Structures are given as structure tokens and as C-alpha cells.
Amino acid sequence: MDSGVSIAAEKLVELTAKYASQITVKDEEYVRAVGFSSKEMAKRVVGRVSLWLISQETNLLYCRLCTKGPFTKRGMFLHLTRMHHAEIKLLLEEEIKKEIKAVL
Question: Is the pTM of this model over 0.70?
Fold first, then answer.
């Protein structure tokens, strides 16, 4: 189970960074990442993890993980994917495990 969780989390890192950066994530991107049957779960997990990643003051985005900023949407996305990839993956793994436990 853990390897499947890890693979799913890895596939969702970029989508999470995108969502947190307030860049639109289309349904088909979730489907491409985790498949149609897991799309809704992926959306919930991405939404929850995204809340921990950024803070916003007016139109400026700041990283909650390292307090750097301000960033544009694109700058925030690049910062999260380059600097915090591993941390986001760990957060996603934890949330995915919670989702699975809730179903079982």
C-alpha cells in the first residue's frame, strides 16, 4: 500500500503546487495523474495540503514552509516545485493515508 501511496503523492506534487499558487487545475489533469476513480480523492487531498503551503496578502503570495516571498502565481509554483518538492510529497502521503483509512 505504501508504495502506491508514494506513487500517487509523487504524481500530485505538481498539481498541488499549481493549485496552491492559484493556477487553474483542470479535472483531466487529476484524471491523468491518478485515474478517474481517484479524481475526487485527489482533489480533496490537493485542496487540504495547499492550505498549508501559501499565505496571501492582497495579490502577493508567500511560502508558509520557508516564509519567502512575495511571489507571483508562476513564481510561487516554481518555488514550491523546486524548493519544497519532498516536503509537499510527504504532506500528500499523509493526507492520502488519512483518505484511505476513512474509506476502510
Answer: yes
pLDDT tens across 6-29, in order? 999 999 999 999 999 999 999 999
Phi-psi region of 47 (alpha: psi -120 to 50; beta: other; left: phi over 0): alpha
At which residue does the C-alpha cell 485527489 appear?
Answer: 42
Type of residue at 94 = E
Closest CA to 19 of 45, 47, 41: 47
For the chain, give the DSSP string: -HHHHHHHHHHHHHHHHHHHTT----HHHHHHHH-GGGHHHHHHHHHHHHHTTEEEETTEEEETTT----B-HHHHHHHHHHHSHHHHHHHHHHHHHHHHHHH-
